[in-house]
Input
Amino acid sequence: MGLLVYLCVFLFLEGTARIGYKIFINPPKDETWFAYSPDLMWELKPNFIGNVGHAKRKFDSQGFLSVDTLQRNDSKKKVLFIGDSNTFGLHVSAESTFVEILDSLLPEISMINLGVPGYTSYQGCQMLIKHGLKLNPDILVVSFNFNDRRYVINSEYTDNAITFQQEYERQLRMRKIKFLENIYLYRSMRFLFRKAGIIKSYQFNINEVKINNFYPRVTPENYRKNLVRITELAKDKNIHVIFMLLKDNPIQTEHLTKGIKYLNNSQYDQAIENLKLAIRHPNWFSDLARKYLAIAYEKQGLLEESEKILTTTAVISLHGAYPIYLDTEYNQIMMQVAENDNVKIIDAGRVLDQNNSYVDFCHPDIKGHQKIAHLLYDSLVEILKYKPEHSEIEPQTDTF
Output
């Protein structure tokens, strides 16, 4: 009878937890396209077939894009691309990415895409060490910016070897108790413990936090170090390096950009007006607008308003939250490294801006990928001394 009573109580609590979990918690669906890694945090999941960013992708048994499986081991000259979701080609088909467009334009050269959604320059450097150099590429195209600038709540979550190893080990422990995921009472208790800060997670809500206490996943200083390290690794193997600049969608940063311009010109009323508009229409850059609005308030002696506007509600994920640095700040670092190390740099952001070739806050649309391919074409042909028989590519001028 005692066991029966306990069983009835458990079933009642479990049923209540299931109802409450689905109504009040309603967590996002688990991402299945990646697998955790001790040195990269996450990689493409081997043998995955499904949608990533609203477009179908297929990965091979090694965890690389299937379209590149044969090319990784062929004898052709190779161009290797490391980058984030822009290089991976989020929101467009695999065939529509600038890497695959270049593959069709230069069939005698193997274009290999090692871009992974959410990657920073730190992960790109580790990817190059772990996989890229083994492919013996002739050219390395490097493009990182957006994810480096995304904030995390403290230094423990910034990109580094210790953090990656700890999260990997935590995921291993989670797998051992995976059967508990079927018990909603366990799920609900875990959620409440995370909310209370008793256990840590890379994905949870944080209430009443201060933006000025956040850290970018990769600081400007470390961003510079990562780019220098990538360049050194490539040049040690006689690999030509190309940096590619990308940026945020100027339509979504319009009021932010205007506000900062007014702020730099000491026109504080106009700065406050525009930065308020940037916050009023929530998007990926609202918290960055808060950061500068607080400065504008402080300049006018409105310390209480400055302190208040820094308070926000954040949602931290495995990839970090919103950016807290401008794209121009990190692009300036990339240009400086390129100049110091004699690296060719291509401004792809400029050509995307010309016709607003974006699908969202930073990702190129299909036309944008075509523009990037055309922009890279001449540089690749020049470096590889390749003479294509047929070409419909017009010369580009956005190479520095």
